[in-house]
Specification:
The complex is a heterotetramer of chains A (about 300), B (about 375), C (about 500) and D (about 350). With about 300 residues, chain A is of the alpha/beta class. Chain A has helices spanning about 30-45, 60-75, 90-100, 125-140, 155-170, 185-200, 210-225, 245-250, 265-275, 300-305; strands at about 20-25, 50-55, 80, 100-105, 120, 145-150, 175-180, 205-210, 235-240, 255-260, 285, 290-295. Chain A is built from 10 helices and 12 strands. In chain A, the strands form 2 sheets. In chain A, strands 2-1-3-4-5-11 form a 6-stranded parallel beta sheet, sandwiched between helices. In chain A, strands 7-6-8-9-10-12 form a 6-stranded mixed beta sheet, with helices on both faces. In chain A, helix 3 links the parallel strand 3 (about 80) and strand 4 (about 100-105). Chain B is an all-alpha fold. Chain B has a domain at about 65-315: Orthogonal Bundle (ABC transporter involved in vitamin B12 uptake, BtuC). In chain B, a hairpin with a 5-residue loop joins strand 1 and strand 2 (about 55-60). The longest helix of chain B is centred in the last third of the chain and has 27 residues, at about 240-265. Chain B is globular, with a radius of gyration of 23 Å. The N and C termini of chain B lie close together (about 10 Å). Chain D is built from 15 helices and 4 strands. In chain D, the strands form 2 sheets. A two-stranded antiparallel ribbon of chain D has the order 1-4. The chains are: A alpha/beta (about 300), B mainly alpha (about 375), C alpha/beta (about 500), D mainly alpha (about 350). At the B-D interface, helix 7, helix 12, helix 14 and helix 15 of B face helix 7, helix 13 and helix 15 of D. Bound molecules: adenosine-5'-triphosphate (2 copies) and magnesium ion (MG) (2 copies). One adenosine-5'-triphosphate sits at the interface of chains C and D.
Chain lengths: ~300, ~375, ~500, ~350
């Protein structure tokens, strides 16, 4: 029932009317993951595909909220949202609901009532962490001395990936040698690992919550002549599956890389189609399939397919 | 009697020392060193090892400090000049590093973001990045000197745009250089056990000291920073001099940018050199330079930069709870500046003066 | 404390790093007297005042104030104000960003609120009564120095005070304004206010003062009744030696040969963006000439145009017979012209820099960016001029801002002399300079001229001009209206011409 | 004679000439703001035609307005305060934790907010005013401290569930007659949040404070020339101290308003707010060098920056980097226009006052 109203958007189904979407995302500079994510969305929501898309990027929650308010005033049909912060969104979403704007979350969940959005397509960060930690457990090391490099504190990715490690470590008595945030930053990671080496800490695992930080850590190891990778002194773990990271994996310099799927657009399109046809969605939250790669089993095909 | 005069000279030396500008960062450095020495003397241990290619290298906290402090120290040099001449600070250096680093990688990688071999000699890439960084500096310089916009806002423009421009230069791809010669600038020269950034920084210091010695830059910059009108009437061109300091800072940015991208042979536009502008300004201030411009002391700023790195390394070493790290940093910084504040120093000096005669009496 | 004395300072000591500015100084101010505080540049007059008003903390000694038994502690100007001491400091210390009225009323009065209408009205009345022609709501920065000085005075006299301190208030005022000030001072005196008056103009001292205290090198020389201390003695007390008679100087004027000496600088229809009418000007080798006129008549603008200090909008210029372009100060400097600006604080000193750097600045700029002086060389230059001009400074490393006003002026003079100019422009070089040095400077001017330097000399004191110049250019309303030389150089003719007599 | 000279000419200045620098800058900002808004309404259409878009700008920036007001105060005295953003984050997080984890009351949370602001103001003010340490260092450390403390209080961001607070947060003040119809045809009222009222009160109060109280004028004097202010009998230390104290308290209030807007605590809240606050103040006519500044200007400075962002976001740029670059370009144009107008005015003043003087003298 989309009749009346000041700006009539009925008749979209005929195909000559574009569906307007406002897409709020994090800054594509943030990481390789984000770049891939942004490119994927941009390739999908084009005029040719029947969408009139506006994009807004920010790493700051309040700016994102601002953009959201703006799109609500512009009365877009769909508001696609990858929130910088999990909290602080409910009143905006209520405004959206009042204004008749449908909200679809992608990539990141937020802390708000389910009724406020139509669907949420996310990675299960907890599961990513659990998969990785499970893999680590299966390495059956005689001792676990871990350097844990955390992402920006409080982000969903950090929470999920840290949570799994912290839980298991306390359960299995693993020794966390260093636990510090490098804020997704390779160079900070390098400094933190360097500092651990300088003060003669013993460690045999580097659990970095993204590829950049793993790269920084490896740079520090290389300097100090500490061997790393398959069958070497230190196990290196990363996340995101950047192509270059998978290549490192393939070369045996790293041991594990956890996938975090940036390609949500096909899922989103699916949902929009269903909503446009008036169908109801079977479930609100769609969790994407993700896996982890082991250096010893990864193939060139994997690198091509999953590398971002 | 002679005891007394000796005491007097001693206390006057102490008083004089307290007044010297360089005392501030020096004292800060000493306090930090002392703290570490008491907590764990092994902090200062330096060991000779070999890297994975079998080249010798030194490692230890002190080495890390002179290594990672380099970019900051280089920036502090330019920032000091900018501060002195234009009575304000450039907050766009972090963004400008992103730009110049991005340019280096763009030139090295060409259109392919992951080339197997370098598409251009490193020196060419560096020179081009120098020009770009100097252009950034020139942009800021023009806004400040010609349009007379206050430095902090003028540079806010590049601060806002810089990281976007950096992304644009590389088409938002994240180039990675695999060639190992490139990593020399942020790592080690094969065969030399001391990290290259330190040498680069040293070279920068030498250059700037030579410039200050063999040109009148220092005098001009201070004079313009203290009294623009007088400087003009004495034949200087204040706008030009301010402009030049920004261009010099641009050069510093290019060098720091090269080290930054070389460290990990890659770049992340949004986090590379993040918040380094604040640290650079802090270095200038810790060096006892007035942020309101005028007289400056470059060595003090450089020391200030290493104080900041010393502090960071110390905090890492003691594994301060990671997210609370800034809070500790704040407390230490405040303690350092309070202890070295002129008023407090005067009080301490006065205390010394009081103590000396008292002891002399006891002795006599 | 003695009867009738308002204020007593006993055994005051104050030293700065490297300088003992005050040593065991006593000072007494009585009710209803105007008390001159005299001394050479750097004798410690301003320091004594600053100690009294809490700007500087004294190292030793006591201050007594009538009605406050025992020694009082004055730790800030505010406390001094509360004790009934109101002060006009030597360097105008007002806030340039505030309006005239605010500068008069800020920091005083009761109640938390500002009543703008009331304040502007009161300020307007006060300014009117003193004959200061500014609007109360005008921003102070847009007023001339003279007006600023008058505003500072207005503020000081308007305060309910028992002690009024005036530290060289007259150095930038013209005669009519000085007269106004004196009228005011006499009124206050009648009301029992004690006034401390610092000046380097002896005439003024003998015109209004009752008593004189002389300081030399930070020490008290003595306190005298004005009648008992004739001028010559006063000067010798200040200098610690006899002063050569000033009247003689004029006879020494080197008579340059109008026809033979070549023209060093010539301008035709010169005009700057600062609103003067185009003027013609020339000066010959060895000549000393001067611009005269009322305050604001455009004397400074003329010489600024010659030096390229303001934007030159039109005109032709010849230096040594060759046509040249002078658009910026550096052009002028390259052609051997030097310019000592009138506003020392704004256009002269580089406050935080050392005396050495201040002295070499101009020469260094002239020499070029890539050819810095060595420290030793610079120190040598500095020492030379410190000696030549008898500059009182702790060392060459002392920042110039901590020198006394007069000594700052000498440093800047030294700076320009060091460039060995062919043509030297001096705009009020003797402002704030003590009698002894004034004579020295006049002599120096004449000596330099006899050695072939051309000099333009501007001063608000006509006798000074008469003593040094062989030709005077008269300015009125920003226009060059006449030229006087030879027999015409008398006080009367000058006054007539300035005021618009029919001299053309 | 000379007197006639000194006054003549002043009276003949044009309208622009009669404004002081800060008022001129403020007027430019206001005019440019209105021009931009008109452009947005007629050039960019739909959203901007609704009143609610404007109110949303207010809602989103109420906290920033308050923080920027505090910043303006310290900038007028010639200082700077980098800690305001960190303070807002700390206030939000502390209030959030207090409300949800210690089931506190809204009043308590407000007190905590004020307390934090007060503590920052006291300490920073003391260090800067009485120990004479450079404000930049002190407040930068303050920012580090606040950010660090925020994560110590609680690492993870969360929405506050406390009922009283949620009610307060969701209180909307309806602006009658300004609403609009949504696409389903329902009428939606235009509204502002409580924070906006607080912000406007702060603006009004500070405007009065700076203009009509002695303490307020002392701020200007101290910023104009510290030494002179001292000699004019102003207690410079206490005035400086007061400025930082007020800025701290406003940081507390602003932090709470921010908290009411987002309803959550997070370590990344108000990131970079200090820079926005500084920029807003300067755009509104405040000088970093001190002695010049204006609260109304600051208000429009904040709104202008926000509007620029809104416009950029609705131009529909296809590449992410254009957002940053366009934002910066608009800021650049803005600042250059400001500076050119100021420079032209200086020139115009000279040439307009001179002939008048000449006439007056005849
Ligand atoms: N703040 C300061 N720091 C260091 N030295 C100072 C300071 N103020 C004054 N002096 C020194 O104290 C001495 C006395 O200076 P003061 O200003 O009192 O002289 P004065 O008698 O007022 O001279 P003038 O007639 O030139 O104004 C000078 O030698 C000056 O260099
Ligand atoms: N009508 C006016 N209103 C405000 N300021 C004025 C006015 N006329 C002149 N002035 C200022 O007064 C000052 C003195 O003017 P100017 O330099 O032209 O005079 P002068 O003849 O050199 O006098 P002196 O050197 O004795 O001040 C200048 O700074 C000038 O800008
Ligand atoms: Mg004096
Ligand atoms: Mg003049």
């Amino acid at each position: 029932g989309t009749e009346g109203g000041s700006s009539s958007n009925s008749g979209k189904k005929s195909g000559d009317k574009l569906i307007s979407v406002g897409i709020i995302n994090n800054d594509p500079n943030e990481s390789g993951y984000r770049t891939a994510n942004v490119n994927d969305l941009k390739a999908t929501f084009t005029k040719e595909n029947g969408y009139d898309a506006q994009f807004a990027y920010s790493l700051k929650n309040e700016e994102q909220i601002n953009y959201a308010q703006k799109y609500i005033q512009d009365e877009v049909d769909y508001l696609l949202l990858s929130a910088a912060d999990t909290a602080g969104w409910d009143s905006v979403l209520k405004d959206a609901k009042d204004a008749g704007v449908k909200v679809i979350l992608f990539d990141r969940t937020i802390d708000a009532d389910e009724s406020l959005y139509e669907a949420s397509i996310v990675s299960d960060m907890n599961k990513e962490g659990e998969t990785a930690v499970e893999w680590l457990k299966n390495q059956n090391l005689t001792s676990y001395d871990i350097i844990h490099l955390q992402g920006v504190m409080g982000s969903a990715a950090q929470k999920g990936r840290s949570g799994a490690l912290t839980d298991t470590a306390s359960k299995l008595n693993w020794n966390i040698v260093v636990e510090q945030t490098a804020e997704w930053n390779a160079e900070k990671a390098q400094q933190i690992v360097q500092s651990a080496i300088d003060s003669n800490q013993k460690f045999n695992v580097i659990y970095a919550e993204n590829d950049d930080m793993a790269k920084g850590a490896v740079a520090a190891l290389d300097r100090a002549n500490i061997s790393h990778g398959v069958g070497k002194d230190v196990i290196v773990m990363g996340f995101d599956c950047n192509k270059w990271a998978l290549q490192e994996l393939k070369a045996g310099n790293w041991n594990y890389d956890g996938q975090c799927n940036p390609f949500q657009s096909s899922y989103i399109v699916d949902i929009i189609k269903k909503l446009e046809n008036g169908e109801t969605l079977p479930q609100k939250t769609i969790i994407m399939d993700e896996k982890g790669f082991d250096a010893s089993t990864i193939t060139d095909a994997d690198v091509e397919q999953y590398g971002i | 009697m002679s005891q007394n005069t000796k005491n007097n000279t001693a206390s006057s030396i102490i008083t004089a020392m307290f007044r010297k500008q360089i005392f501030i960062p020096l004292a800060a450095l000493l306090i930090l060193a002392l703290f570490n020495f008491i907590m764990d003397p092994s902090f200062f241990k330096i060991t000779l090892g070999h890297n994975s290619n079998g080249d010798p290298l030194l490692s230890g906290n002190i080495i890390s400090i002179i290594d990672y402090g380099s970019e900051l120290a280089i920036l502090a040099v330019g920032m000091t000049l900018v501060t002195a001449a234009s009575r304000g600070q450039d907050i766009s250096v972090g963004a400008a590093i992103a730009i110049s680093g991005s340019v280096v990688l763009r030139v090295l990688c060409g259109t392919n973001s992951r080339p197997d071999e370098l598409q251009a000699p490193i020196i060419v890439a560096f020179i081009i990045s120098c020009f770009v960084a100097m252009a950034c500096g020139a942009f800021n310089g023009v806004l400040v000197s010609v349009f007379k916009i206050q430095p902090m806002v003028a540079t806010l423009i590049l601060f806002t745009a810089g990281r976007s421009i950096a992304a644009w230069i590389n088409n938002n791809e994240l180039p990675v250089v695999t060639d190992s010669t490139f990593s020399v600038f942020g790592g080690y020269i094969p065969g030399i056990p001391i990290p290259t950034p330190f040498f680069i920084a040293l070279a920068c210091f030498v250059v700037i000291f030579l410039v200050l010695k063999f040109t009148t830059l220092g005098l001009y910059v201070q004079s313009v920073g203290i009294n623009e009108e007088t400087s003009r009437l004495n034949g200087l061109n204040p706008a030009l001099i301010k402009f030049i300091t920004y261009v010099i800072l641009g050069l510093c940015v290019a060098v720091a940018g090269l080290i930054k991208v070389s460290r990990i042979s890659s770049i992340n536009y949004s986090v590379v050199a993040k918040d380094i502008e604040m640290d650079a300004i802090l270095a200038v201030a810790l060096g006892g330079n007035a942020l309101g411009g005028g007289k400056f002391n470059i060595s003090a700023s450089i020391l200030g930069a290493y104080v900041i790195q010393f502090l960071t390394t110390t905090l890492y070493k003691f594994q301060v709870q990671s997210d609370a790290l800034p809070a500790y940093k704040a407390v230490v910084v405040i303690l350092l500046v309070v202890l070295s504040a002129p008023i407090v120093r005067e009080k301490i000096a006065a205390l010394f003066r009081k103590l000396r005669p008292a002891r002399a009496e006891q002795n006599g | 404390m003695q009867e009738k004395s308002l204020l007593e300072m006993r055994g005051i000591y104050k030293s700065f790093p490297g300088v003992k500015a005050l040593r065991n100084v006593d000072f007494t101010l009585r009710e209803g007297e105007i008390h001159a505080l005299m001394g050479e540049n750097g004798a410690g007059k301003s320091t004594l005042i600053k100690v009294l008003t809490g700007v500087h903390v004294k190292d030793g000694g006591d201050i007594f104030i009538k009605g406050h038994g025992g020694a009082v502690q004055i730790r800030s100007p505010q406390e001094a104000q509360n004790l009934g001491i109101s002060t006009v400091y030597q360097e105008i210390s007002l806030c340039p960003n505030l309006s005239v009225a605010e500068n008069i009323f800020i920091g005083r009065g009761k109640g938390p609120a500002v009543n703008w209408r009331e304040m502007n009205k009161k300020a307007g009345e006060l300014l009117d009564s003193l004959g200061i022609a500014v609007k109360p709501n005008q921003q102070l920065a847009s007023c001339s120095i003279a007006v600023q000085q008058m505003v500072a005075i207005a503020r000081a006299v308007d305060m309910e005070c028992s002690v009024l301190i005036l530290d060289e208030p007259t150095s930038s005022l013209d005669e009519s304004e000085v007269e106004k000030l004196f009228g005011l001072m006499r009124d206050l005196k009648k009301r029992g206010v004690g006034i401390i008056f610092v000046t380097h103009f002896l005439d003024q001292v003998y015109e209004v003062c009752d008593r004189i205290t002389v300081l030399r090198d930070g020490q008290l020389v003595g306190e005298y009744e004005i009648e008992k201390l004739p001028r010559v003695q006063l000067v010798s007390k200040m200098l610690g030696k006899e002063l050569d008679d000033m009247a003689d100087i004029k006879n020494d004027i080197p008579q340059y040969d109008e026809a033979r000496n070549k023209i060093v600088y010539e301008a035709e229809n010169l005009c700057s963006s600062e609103g003067i009418k185009p003027f013609n000007f020339r000066i010959r080798k060895g000549e000393v000439n001067g611009f005269t006129g009322l305050l604001g008549s455009g004397r400074s603008e003329c010489v600024r145009a010659i030096f390229g200090a303001d934007k030159v909008t039109s005109g032709k210029v010849w230096v040594d017979g060759k046509q040249v372009k002078i658009n910026k100060p550096i052009d002028a400097m390259k052609h051997g012209i030097a310019y000592l600006a009138e506003d020392r604080k704004r256009d002269g000193i580089v406050g935080d820099l050392s005396v050495r750097d201040n002295i070499i600045l101009a020469l260094q700029v002239k020499k070029g960016f890539f050819r810095p002086f060595s420290k030793a060389q610079a120190t040598k230059f500095a020492d030379e001029y410190i000696k030549l001009l008898d500059i009182k400074t702790a060392s060459v490393n002392t920042p110039i801002k901590s020198l006394s006003g007069g000594n700052q002026q000498k440093v800047i003079l030294g700076r320009w002399l060091l460039t060995h100019p062919n043509y030297l422009i001096l705009d009020e070089p003797t402002r704030g300079i003590d009698v002894g040095t004034k004579v020295d400077i006049q002599k120096l001017v004449l000596k330099l001229a006899s050695e072939g330097m051309s000099i333009t000399f501007i001063s608000s004191e006509t006798d000074e001009m008469l003593r040094t110049c062989s030709r005077l250019l008269v300015m009125r309303d920003r226009k060059l209206v006449g030229e006087l030389k030879g027999d015409q150089l008398t006080q009367n003719t000058i006054m007539n011409t300035i005021a618009g007599g029919e001299q053309k | 004679m000379s007197q006639k000279f000194l006054t003549a000419g002043k009276s003949r200045r044009g309208l622009i000439g009669s404004l002081s620098d800060t008022n001129l800058l403020m007027s430019i900002t206001i005019i440019v703001f209105i021009a931009m808004y008109l452009f947005a309404i007629f050039g960019l259409g739909s959203g901007f035609q609704k009143a609610q878009t404007f109110f949303n700008i207010l809602n989103a920036n109420a906290a920033l307005i308050i923080l920027a007001c505090g910043m303006t105060l310290v900038m007028i005295t010639g200082g700077i305060d980098i800690s305001v953003g960190g303070m807002a984050a700390l206030v939000s997080m502390s209030s959030a934790v207090y409300l949800d984890m210690h089931s506190g009351s809204v009043w308590g949370a407000m007190l905590i907010s004020l307390g934090i602001g007060l503590a920052f103001g006291l300490v920073q003010g003391y260090l800067i005013a009485y120990l004479d340490i450079q404000p930049f260092i002190v407040t930068l450390a303050g920012m580090f401290f606040a950010r660090g403390m925020t994560t110590i209080v609680n690492t993870n961001p969360f929405n506050v569930q406390n009922e009283a607070f949620v009610k307060l947060k969701e209180t909307r003040i309806i602006i009658p007659g300004m609403g609009s119809y949504n696409k389903r045809g329902d009428y939606i009222d235009a509204y502002i949040e409580i924070g906006v009222i607080v912000a406007l009160i702060v603006v009004a109060a500070l405007f009065v404070f700076l203009k009509w109280t002695k303490t307020g004028r002392n701020f200007y004097a101290v910023g104009g020339n510290k030494q002179s202010a001292l000699m004019l009998g102003i207690n410079v230390k206490r005035t400086t101290f007061l400025a930082y104290l007020m800025c701290g308290i406003l940081g507390g209030i602003g932090g709470f308003v921010y908290f009411m807007h987002v309803g959550s605590g997070s370590a990344t809240h108000a990131a970079g707010a200090e820079m926005n606050a500084i920029a807003s103040s300067i755009i509104g006519g405040t000088m970093l060098t001190g002695g010049v500044g204006n609260i109304i200007g600051t208000l429009f400075g904040v709104l202008s920056l926000a509007l620029i962002q809104n416009i950029v976001s609705s131009i529909g740029l296809d590449q992410a980097w254009w957002t940053g670059i366009t934002n910066a370009s608009m800021l650049c144009i803005f600042l250059v226009v400001q500076s050119v107008i100021i420079a032209r005015r200086k020139k115009a003043n000279l040439s307009s006052s001179r002939p008048a003087e000449a006439k007056g003298a005849k």
